[in-house]
Amino acid sequence: MGVGVDAHRFSDASPCMLLGLRWPDEARLVGHSDGDAAVHALCDAVLSACELGDVGNLFGVDRAEMVNASGMMMLKELHEFISKQGFVINNVALQVIGNAPKIMPRRLEAQTALSEALGAPVSVAATTTDGMGFTGRGEGVLVIATALIQMP
Predict the structure, then answer these.
(1) Surface-to-core class of residue 80, CB atoms within 10 Å of its CB (0-12 exposed, 13-18 middle, 19+ buried)
(2) Averaged confidence pLDDT in the chain
(3) Beta partners for 127?
(4) How far is 60 from 41, CA to CA, in rounded Å?
(5) What is the pLDDT of residues 15-28, one digit of tens each?
(6) DSSP letter (8 states) at residue 87
(7) CATH number of residue 97's parent domain
(8) Calpha distance 31→60 (Å, rounded)
(9) Is the pTM of this model over 0.90?
(10) Containing domain of residue 17, as a range?
(11) What would the mean pLDDT of 31-43 be, rounded to a whole number?
């Protein structure tokens, strides 16, 4: 079992990429890749469970092709990487913490897209912090992921 956490702040630009989906009317999440904090947390959780480091080890800023890279591409590469080593992902759970974008109307769409890209079931939930902290002030998003894997 592994846990991953990631947070990104919003910029003035759009669109936002989160949960593998494009949110055209929401502010972009700032990041080296497409800024998808959910994908980054998911990668960290899976890599942690496999004892293979974190997202920076696999998709570091030293890789030029990672500038604005798609989170969905990252998930497919992650799945291929761990599968070659004999690991099997049982499932991943994501908890998105923030005021925007509103996750629940697109939750099933996100689960389907992430599950297909990862090759394993992904569940998505969301909450707010009732106005507290950077997520409550609408400055960004925090995502917590938990992954359950089978060892080779």
Answers:
(1) exposed
(2) 93
(3) 97
(4) 14
(5) 999 999 999 999 99
(6) -
(7) 3.30.1330.50
(8) 12
(9) yes
(10) 2-150
(11) 91
Domain count, the chain: 1
Q: How do beta strands 88-97 and 122-127 pair?
A: parallel
Which residue has 């990672």 as its token pair?
Answer: 66
Q: Do the Cβ atoms of 71 and 25 come closer than 8 Å?
A: no
Q: What is the pLDDT of residues 74-101, one digit of tens each?
A: 899 999 999 999 999 999 999 999 999 9
Cβ atoms of residues 11 and 61 within 8 Å = no
- Taking the C-alpha atoms of residue 136 and residue 114, their distance in angstroms, rounded to an integer, is 26
Using pLDDT thresholds of 50, 70 and 90, give the confidence band for residue 13.
confident
Give phi and psi for 38, each to the nearest 5.
Answer: -65, -45
- Residues in contact with 19: Cβ distance below 8 Å, sequence separation at least 6, in sequence order: 36, 38, 39, 94, 96, 103, 106, 110, 113, 114, 124
What is d(CA 139, CA 120) in angstroms, rounded to the nearest whole number? 31
In this predicted structure, the answer to whether residue 145 has a pLDDT above a threshold of 70 is yes
Task: List beta partners, residue 4.
Answer: 145
Using the predicted structure, report yes or no on whether residue 66 has a pLDDT greater than 70. no
Rg over alpha carbons for the chain, rounded to the nearest Å, is: 14
